[in-house]
Design brief:
The protein is 20% helix and 28% strand. Strand 1, helix 1 and strand 2 form a beta-alpha-beta unit. It is globular. It has a single domain, classed as 2-Layer Sandwich (BirA Bifunctional Protein, domain 2), CATH 3.30.930. It is built from 3 helices and 10 strands; from the N terminus they run βαβββββαββββα. The protein has a 7-stranded mixed sheet with strand order 1-2-6-10-9-8-7, sandwiched between helices. Strands 4-3-5 form a 3-stranded mixed sheet, with no helix packed on it. The protein is of the alpha+beta class and 237 residues long.
């Protein structure tokens, strides 16, 4: 499927080793000339736990034989494995007129629109990047009761409320000299058991789901192409 943005080189990499992909992302980001063509990588990884810059070892409960790879992205610990679509936009935010907050919003929006393509309603949760679905009714369009709340200036933000929700997409990014890498992961049809061996994104007991477990028989290819198309549109120059 061609990208809708000719400035973005869309590449489907298949199943690739996480650590080597991470190193290649850093290399390309550092070496790309200012007028060089930017890239969007779509892939999946063999089983791996990855730790963000804020990652704490105590959130990795029982890694067993699954490797744990420290990274330079934001956030805590997450899991990547077969059956998960991972998208890595290697782009220049300044060139595309995006601030970091808007970029994160667009990554989340791409996940929401991809889920909508399959009839699923994705939700944001205040204070917890990523996309969530209602466990009891992932197809409901009703607003969540735990919508973002106003707070008095100077008071701490309320803790995220995951009541009745499962996480279906996670994100973590790194921005260096306006250049972004890392990205977004959407769970399609995975072995979800490894998520129980960590505190996903640093939250003990946070349930993780995929399209398969909520009753959507999407293939990895279908989800990958839809997510790529949505990202291409939302990140276009």
């Amino acid at each position: 499927m061609p990208t809708s943005d000719p400035s973005l080189d869309l590449r489907f990499l298949g199943r690739v080793d996480y650590a080597r992909t991470f190193e290649k992302m850093k290399e390309i980001t550092a070496q790309r000339p200012p007028d060089g063509r930017e890239q969007l990588w779509i892939c999946e990884h063999p089983p791996v736990f990855t730790l963000g810059l804020a990652g704490r070892a105590e959130h990795v409960l029982a890694p067993g034989g699954i490797p744990v790879v420290p990274t330079d992205r934001g956030g805590q610990v997450t899991y990547h494995g077969p059956g998960q679509v991972v998208a890595y936009p290697l782009i220049d935010l300044k060139r595309r007129g995006l601030f970091v907050k808007e970029y994160v919003f667009r990554l989340e929006e791409a996940a929401i629109r991809t889920l909508a393509h399959f009839g699923v309603t994705g939700h944001r949760v205040a204070g917890a990047p990523g996309i969530y679905v209602r466990l009891a009714d992932p197809f409901s369009h009703a607003a969540l009761p735990q919508r973002p709340r106003q707070r008095a200036p100077g008071t701490p933000a309320p803790a995220p409320d995951f009541t009745g929700l499962g996480k279906i997409a996670a994100l973590g990014i790194k921005v260096s000299s306006h250049r972004a890498y890392h990205g977004l992961a959407l769970n399609v049809a995975m072995d979800l058991a490894p998520f129980s061996r960590i505190n996903p994104c640093g939250y003990a007991g946070l349930q993780t789901v995929d399209l398969s477990t909520i009753g959507v028989p999407a293939t990895w290819d279908d989800a990958a192409h839809e997510l790529a198309a949505q990202l291409s549109r939302l990140l276009a120059l």
